Amino acid sequence: MTSYMLKEFKLKLSRSIPCRRVILVYAYGEGKMSRTVADAVDYKGYPADRIKTGGWVPAALILGIEICERLSTMGIAVNLVTYLGGRMHLPSADSANIVTDFMGTSFLLCLLGGFLADSFLGRYRTIAIFTLIQILGTATLAISTELPQLRPPPCHPRVINNCKQANGFQMGILYMALYLIALGTGGLKSSVSGFGTDQFDEKHEKEKAQMAFFFNRFVFFISMGTLTAVTVLVYIQDEANRSLAYGICSVSMFIAFLLFLSGTRRYRYKKSLGSPIVCIFQVIVAALSKRKMELPYDVGMLYEDSPEASRIHHTDQFQCLDKASIVVEGDFGSNGSSPNPWKLCSVTRVEEVKMMGRLLPVWATTIIFWTTYAQMITFSVQQASTMERSVGNFQIPAGSLTVFFVTAILITLAVYDRLVMPLWKKWKGQPGFTDLQRIAIGLILSTAGMAAAALAEMKRLSIAKAVGGNTTTLPISVFLLIPQFFLVGAGEAFIYTGQLDFFITKSPKGMKTMSTGLFLSTISLGFFMSSFLVSVVKKITQTRNGQGWLADNINYGRLDYFYGLLAILGLINFVAYSFCAVWCRPQKAKPAVEMESVVKGSSAEEKC
Questions:
Q1: How far apart are CA 249 and CA 68, in angstroms?
Q2: What residues contact residue 50 under an 8 Å CB cut-off, 6+ apart?
Q3: Per the similarity annotation, which family is this (predicted)?
Q4: For site-directed labelling of 452, which of 143, 232, 462, 505 has its Cα 20 to 30 A away?
């Protein structure tokens, strides 16, 4: 029977069956491809049709939400420090900490968003709900910056030292707006990337290849949102009206929300498998309750109830958790049908927890990068505000210097996508660097960026000392800061795609949203670490006259020392990361034969 005749026969057969949802199987040469996606459903709950759902169009609608979220968040963050200092009259270190705390909270709340998505709401509903929250937050911020009652009175340029700071009520309204935005960001970011990858089937060769490009294009397009934020929005904030810029953020997010809803029929939805946090605790509790028991020599004696196709084979790391799979009397209920999950867990469930555990060393050693990143939207912007920024008759807003940062990201991603990936595939047979290699490159570039920042600041301070620290605009070009923006920006291009790839692909299927939140929490902790370092350094180095490394007027401080400290911390962190990357490489599946050689001579507790 020819291929054409076979197709016709199956088509007639499908029409003769009254069921609406028929799984059609077509023969293509030697292989077969199902028209439905095995682990996904459509908006009605039926098996997802590969042709009618998923792919680049739905993924693009999801990306639209992330682009506008980045437009809002970065449009606020990169220039917020100038608003806090210039309009709310706060000291430079306090302004920097408010910005980093706001950004840190935004990413920390990704853990909450991930938990809600995995446990109750699903990714689609989570994105919809938290988009509305962010729209409310940006609208509130637009109002708070427009009403004069919510700002202290303006300062006369000659009596700047006697400016009245914003009072508690004014700061309270500002905080309410910022943290509504932070809550919206947390819910969105935890689900957007995961929901985007849900539109591609890992088991389908063509769609798997599309997913490999999705990570790079995801970062590329959200970087375009950042680029628009640091150019157009920052210019509107400085030269026209700040509340107008924030209003644009709110309107653009609302439009993206409507476009997102328009794709409801086209999306693929993955069924929620319950709270991953509960699953993790079940394994830990079961293992602790059997901590004094000896592991069997044969892995096959451990409990397993997962279907063969979805099983995760046993690995040697974290062997103390294997005790959760030892079968003892009382593990099963009175009817003997299913075990108590707090007493007995399958090998697959234990391996899922191990997979999450293997993410933690990389998670811990990537935090320092985002501490470095925080300087690009705080102290680097303050540096730019003291330097010559004129190009002809046009003056570049200080916050717009981050355009070089974003440009570096876009250039790096374009070169990597169009040049490095094809060449690497021809040479090594792999589509580009591995996720761990990309993270390593990002860490190296960020450390070099802080070294360049320290050198640039030394030059700037020498000029400030020569002409006087009270000079409003120092006779030194702002383009001196380009190397630090470019190096850290190129580093983000590598580390963001590397982390996104690592945390999504190396986590269990039912914990991908949680692992995305875990990845985004590194950004959060990086910002919080920046706030912590700023507070500690300011306290330790502050002199009696209120100066120190991080003086209120950076012309009288030693910001170069602070950058140098970050470069040293980055170098130490890279060494630690190298060891962690070797340790957390995927373990080969252990056949169900023997553990005697592993267990013999040492207890299982010592192996954990």
A1: 7
A2: 34, 35, 36, 37, 201, 204
A3: Belongs to the major facilitator superfamily. Phosphate:H(+) symporter (TC 2.A.1.9) family.
A4: 232
CATH topology of domain 56-271+355-583: Growth Hormone; Chain: A; (1.20.1250)
Give the DSSP H or E segment for 34.
strand 31-34
Q: Tokens standing for 172?
A: 């309270």
Task: Using the Cα atoms of residue 415, residue 421, residue 422 and residue 424 in order, give the sign of their dihedral.
Answer: positive
Contact 218, 196 (CB under 8 A): yes
Write out pLDDT tens, residues 460-472.
Answer: 888 888 887 677 7
Cβ–Cβ < 8 Å for 303, 350: no
What dihedral angle (degrees, nearest 10) is formed by the CA atoms of 253, 95, 168, 174?
-10
Residues facing residue 36 across a β-bridge = 49
For residue 225, what are its two tokens?
Answer: 């949102």
The rounded distance, in Å, linking the Cα atoms of 548 and 606 is 48
Per-residue pLDDT at 437 exceeds 90: no
Contact 510, 118 (CB under 8 A): yes
- Please name every residue paired with 544 in a beta bridge, in sequence order, or none if there are none: none
- Those residues whose C-beta lies under 8 Å from the C-beta of residue 150, and which sit 6 or more positions away, are 144, 170, 173, 174
> CA 279 from chain center: how many Å?
23
48-101 pLDDT tens trace: 888 888 788 888 888 888 888 888 888 888 778 778 877 888 877 788 788 888
Work out the angle between the directed axes of helices 92-108 and 56-86 (0-180°, nearest 10): 160
Distances (CA, A) of 441 to 161, 366, 453: 44, 12, 18
Residue pLDDT, tens place only, 4-48: 444 454 444 444 444 433 333 333 333 344 677 777 888 887 888
Tokens of 580: 């962690």
In the block, which residue shows the tokens 């938290």? Answer: 130
Closest C-alpha among 85, 67, 355 to residue 217: 67
Query: Residue 387: phi, psi to the nearest 5?
Result: -110, 165
The whole-angstrom separation of Cα 346 and Cα 286 is 11
DSSP state of 551: -
**DSSP letter string, 291-327:** TTSPPPS-GGGS---S-GGG-----STTGGGGGGG--
Question: Of 274, 381, 290, 270, which Cα lies nearest the Cα of 330?
Answer: 290
